[in-house]
Each structure stands twice: as structure tokens, then as C-alpha cells.
Amino acid sequence: MRKTLLFTLMAAVLLSLLGMSMVAAQDKTPITFGEYVEGSITNKDYEFKYTFEGEKGQIVAVEMLPTPGTYDLDPYIILRDSDGDVLAENDDFGYPLSLVVAELPANETYTILATRSSGSTGTSEGSYWLKASLVEPVTSGAKIEATIVSDSEKATPNYYIMRPESSGPLTVGFSQDISDLFASVKVSTWNTSYGGEDTIAELDNTAKVTNASFTVDLDGGTFYVLRVDRAFGSYSFVVDEATVKVTLD
Predict the structure, then answer these.
(1) Which pLDDT belongs to residue 125?
(2) Coil, strand, or helix at residue 245?
(3) Cβ pair 129, 99 in contact under 8 A
(4) Contact 133, 34 (CB under 8 A)
(5) Measured distance CA(194)–CA(235) in Å, rounded
(6) pLDDT of residue 62
(7) Percent helix, strand and coil across the chain, each to the nearest 5
(8) Residue 218, pLDDT score
(9) 3-class secondary structure, 97
(10) Of the candidates 166, 176, 180, 143, which has an alpha carbon nearest to the alpha carbon of residue 222?
């Protein structure tokens, strides 16, 4: 009787451990570069893990934002290597977008933790979109066409990573057609810190402006983010979308 009871207990413990292992294995979801995945943060479920295979020297950008058209969630993302060490993290990069950028140090599996500001003690809830992308930094001579939209439920970030080889000035020029739908153009630094954004230069009130430019001094080897969005004061019920052309010289 005792042997039977002991065997039953051991079997229960073993099944429990196997169950825990299965849950742990299923806790991380593989992610495909360049594709948005959707999820939802609640007070009960506030952390989700995604994995990808990376190679040494690749530059990866990970963005997380509330589902377009919603504003309740305050996203927060952490990128970790296979040892669990943090490579980059970000709470707000131009709210409500969270963005991390990193050069991968080795050929291995990397994990993205998608959560909310303050994690377990946070209060924001809501659905999110998350995407990991392999990045080829844009350089001097680049010509970019970005699309801005009037419908906030269809708006996703237009951002481009820059990392100049050497220090010096860079002129950012842009052009657009005149309409009620007009753009903002911003250059910011990005680093591995919690906040991660420091705006260097910005053109926001571009109503009635067809062409403009600004020059920034950049440090070689540093990550910068060029972001093109609909300007804060831009609303249109006639124009659905517009193309903004940006040049780097």
C-alpha cells in the first residue's frame, strides 16, 4: 500500500514537472522578421516572450505599439541574448511607440520580452502590435519615400535607422504636396537605456510647406532614428494618404 502510494506521488510529481517543462517551452513564440504579431496585455497576462535566430553583426530593430487607433497600453520591450543578458530596452520612444535597436553580438537565439511600463505593478492594459526587423542603416545619398495616412487606425511608424561611419554634418531634406495631410520629420538618438530618445532636430508644423531641410551633426558609430509621421496638427477628411520624400546628403 505504501509502495503504491509512493509510486502514485512520484508519478504525480513527474507529470507536474513535465507539465511545467511543456508550459515553459510553449512560453516563447518564434517570430518572423518583418511581420507584425498581435497580442494583448492585461493585469493577469502582462508578459509575452518572442524568439528569433540572429547572427553576429546583424542590426535588429524591434517595435511595439498599441494597436493602431487605441491608446490605453503603455508598451515596454526588452531584448535579451541567450544568457538572459539585456542588450537593449525601451519604455517610450515617442509615445506610444517603444523601440529597441541593437547590433547582435553572436550567432544565437534572442528573446524579446513584450510587456508594459512597470511590468507587474503597471496599470495599462490593451492590445498591441509587435515587429522585429533586420535593418540596413540608411546613409548619406539615400532617397526615402514614406507614406503617412489620415486614419489613425491604419497608421504604423515610419522610421529609419542611421549609424554613420564617421562624425560630421548630415542634411535631411523633405518634400510633400500641399494638403491638409502633412508630415513631421524628426531625427533622434537611440541608445540602450530605459528611455532611449533624445530629439536632435524636428520639423513638425509643415502645413503649406512643400520643401524644407535641416542639418544635424552626428557622431560616427552611434545609432540614430529618422522618423516620418503625420504631423500632430494634421487632419484630413479628403486625403487618405500622402507620400513624403526624404533625402539624406
Answers:
(1) 97
(2) strand
(3) no
(4) yes
(5) 32
(6) 97
(7) 10, 45, 40
(8) 96
(9) coil
(10) 166
Gap between the Cα atoms of 174 and 227, Å rounded: 12
Please give the pLDDT value at position 196. 60
pLDDT value for 68: 92
Predicted pLDDT at 9: 38
Q: What is the pLDDT of residue 152?
A: 85
**Segments in the chain below pLDDT 70:** 1-26, 192-196
* Contact assessment for residue 175 and residue 211, using Cβ atoms and an 8 Å cutoff: yes
Note whether 220 and 166 are within 8 A (CB): yes
* Cα 241 from Cα 153, distance rounded (Å): 13
Report helix, strand or coil for 201: strand
> Which residues, in sequence order, are bridge partners of residue 91?
none
In sequence order, the 6+-apart residues with CB closer than 8 A to the CB of 243 are 145, 146, 147, 176, 177
- How many Å apart are CA 33 and CA 58, to the nearest integer? 12
The pTM for the full model equals: 0.85
Phi-psi group of 37: left, alpha or beta (phi > 0 → left; psi -120 to 50 → alpha; rest → beta): beta
Q: Burial of 182 by CB count in 10 Å (0-12 exposed, 13-18 middle, 19+ buried)? A: buried
Instruction: Let me know: does 41 contact 20? Beta carbons within 8 Å.
Output: no
Q: Say what the pLDDT of residue 32 is.
A: 97
To which residue does cell 492590445 refer? 127
Phi-psi category of 69—alpha, beta or left, where left has phi over 0 and alpha has psi -120 to 50? left
Residue 116: count other Cβ atoms within 10 Å of its Cβ: 26
| Mean of pLDDT over the chain | 88
**pLDDT score at 66:** 96
Residues 6+ apart with CB under 8 A from 194: 89, 90, 91
